[in-house]
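PROTEIN DESIGN WORKSHEET
SECTION A - STRUCTURE
LENGTH: 162
TOKENS:
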């Protein structure tokens, strides 16, 4: 066997092994918008009509389906459409979504008796840093603290991560 042919076989073996090792990501899952302007389409492809434009970078969306390079997403309002996967990334974010009109408290630690750091209104986008049990550590405009998971959209009820 010639050296170039052996190298080609070795390279193809490595590529095949890498493809087999890649695990598909679970559905549904949350992701964030990578850009401040994202076209949401009626179907999975550029030939489909644009339904609306999302204009909030880092806004969380729920990925509910996949087709080739396209992801079907759902926003906090329940609206669904398709976006190209290049418009999404895995950095986690959340939206303050309190059932009552009261502001949500961001605490120094995961305890309602700890010092309040700030109060956030519904609709504020946060960076999700960690979630454990009923608490999530978030960052709002440079301030890091803890809030109750039930006050956030962008994380599942039993999901835990650091």
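SECTION B - SEQUENCE
RESIDUE ASSIGNMENT:
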């Amino acid at each position: 066997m010639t050296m170039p042919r052996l190298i080609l076989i070795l390279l193809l073996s490595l590529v095949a092994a890498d493809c087999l090792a890649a695990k598909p990501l679970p559905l549904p899952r949350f992701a964030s918008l990578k850009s401040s302007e994202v076209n949401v389409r009626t179907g999975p492809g550029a030939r489909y009509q644009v339904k609306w434009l999302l204009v909030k970078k880092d806004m969380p969306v729920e990925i509910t389906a996949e087709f080739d390079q396209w992801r079907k997403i759902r926003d906090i309002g329940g609206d669904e459409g398709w976006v190209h996967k290049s418009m999404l990334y895995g950095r986690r974010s959340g939206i303050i979504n309190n059932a009552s009109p009261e502001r949500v408290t961001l605490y120094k630690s995961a305890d309602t008796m700890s010092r309040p750091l700030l109060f956030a209104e519904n609709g504020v986008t946060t960076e999700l840093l960690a979630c454990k049990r009923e608490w999530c550590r978030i960052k709002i405009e440079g301030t890091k603290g803890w809030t109750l998971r039930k006050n956030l959209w962008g994380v599942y009820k039993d999901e835990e991560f650091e």
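SECTION C - NOTES
The chain has two domains: 25-91, 94-153.
Confidence is low (pLDDT under 50) at residues 6-12, 14-20.
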